[in-house]
């Protein structure tokens, strides 16, 4: 027999050893290997489900973030619009107040000018009256210093009083 043809004893013992090995593997090895494979399969399945769940949650969070971003943008626009309106209102109120202050200042200045004008006119009238009195005194002294002339003036005035 040659090297390539196995002997019957070799085939028998190889078959027996293979059968014992197969039995030991079947009894102790395969259950552990199958359990490990099932555990691994379950772990992979759980991981895929968790990944799908996380992906769905990420989409939900992204949608929520977009909604929140839109709300924040709308709120920002509203706040800016309100701030502009308040600014315009403050400017209008300040302009109105400035106009009122200006009008009051002008009115006060006019009153002051009128008061000072009246005061100056009164003072001028008083000075003119004093001057007229002084002139009249001087004229009367001059006129009354002469007795004849003074009697004549008095008589003339008496005639005027009785005639009117």
Q: How many domains?
A: 1
Report the end-to-end length measured between terminal Cα atoms: 191 Å
Which percent range fits the helix content? over 70%
Report the radius of gyration as a whole number of Å: 65 Å
Strand content: under 5%
- Could you give a short account of the major beta sheet? none
Count of individual helical segments: 2
Shape: rod-shaped
Quaternary state of this entry equals single chain
**Low-confidence parts, pLDDT < 50 over ≥5 residues?**
none
Structural class determined from secondary elements: mainly alpha
Run of helices and strands = HH
Number of strand segments: 0
What is the average per-residue confidence, as pLDDT, rounded to a whole number? 87
Give the key terms.
164 residues, mainly alpha, rod-shaped
Verbal overview:
The chain is mainly alpha-helical and 164 residues long. The chain contains two helices and no strands.
Fold topology:
Blueprint: H1 8-145, H2 147-163
Short characterization:
This protein is mainly α and 164 residues long. Helix content is 95%, strand content 0%.
